[in-house]
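Long-time lurker. I teach an intro course on protein structure, and each term I like to show students one example going from raw sequence to a predicted 3D structure in token notation. This year I'd like something fresh instead of my usual example. Would anyone be willing to generate the tokens for the chain below so I can use it in lecture? Attribution to the forum is fine with me.
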Amino acid sequence: MATGRTISAKLLTDFDKKVIALCEAVSNSLKECIPEENRSIYWKKFGKISFSRDGGLGLGGGKLQRDAICTRGRGGKAPFSNRNLRWHPLTVAAEKPRHAREIERIEIENNTLIFVVNINGKIKKYPSDKVHELPVRFVATSKHWQEHIEIVKNWNDTQWTQNSCVIPAPEACGWYDSVETFSLLGIAVAVELYKADYETVYSKTIELLKNQDIDKNISLPSALFPTSREDITRCPITKMSIANNLDQFRKEDRGETWQPNWRTSKKDEGDDASIQIMHVNPLVEKEIRHNASNVRYGFRWSNVAMTDHSLDETLDFMEQIVRVHGRV
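-- Reply from a regular --
Happy to contribute to a lecture. Here you go:
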């Protein structure tokens, strides 16, 4: 029976474990900077870490892990992982982006996707449950799927679950981008929601990044990492602290709706002021934009307003709407 879980969800490479461990160290440091009475709620909601590719079943990992280092949850009849690490080495795109090598071809054996790649002149095959072991990032483009469409379009949910092994190219990034976004989002919630001292949190986090030993050729924090408290902790659209609520903009209370009382309610995630990950410029296939200069926490209302547009496009649109309604 299909579970919707990512293929090889619990199978981490040693490299994966090191990156997740660094994020865990950052999260532990943040927790220690938070007043004691707020630490447990921070850990439960944002800070806890699951050593898995998908952030753990349900709410196994905290929100920082799901937002910063995991891709979005996905379902449906497609090879997308239902969450995976953002540095996962197999992506899909319409055309080849600059940040990935192109695979040779796709084969199908016993209802299993096989990705054929060229690594240093040697042709190797990786089935769906082994693609996480690829040594560098590859991409399967639209052309690679053409000859298999008549087969895969008839696969059922179980067969697709057994092949949920790729991530969309726009959601991919380097391990260091994932760690930096985890860190800056963590600083934002630790300071604004849980009352940690900004200077202390910032300096301790920067020190952990500087001392990373995953790859000494990578210098952290990068030039993309923000230095301003306001830049890190405020919603990109409203410029309000993410600790604010938006009650002053709601004319009526949000009505109650029926929810199955045998399930964990996620209704708060639909509140206008719920905290969501935002990309100041929308993610695209051709370049990596999930990085410290582009990722922020903001309000759900702001995120919905932006959809897949840039901040400038959104503000231009809002300005036009205000003008035509005579609210200037």
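Some talking points for your students: The first helix runs from residue 14 to 33. The chain has a mean pLDDT of 93.
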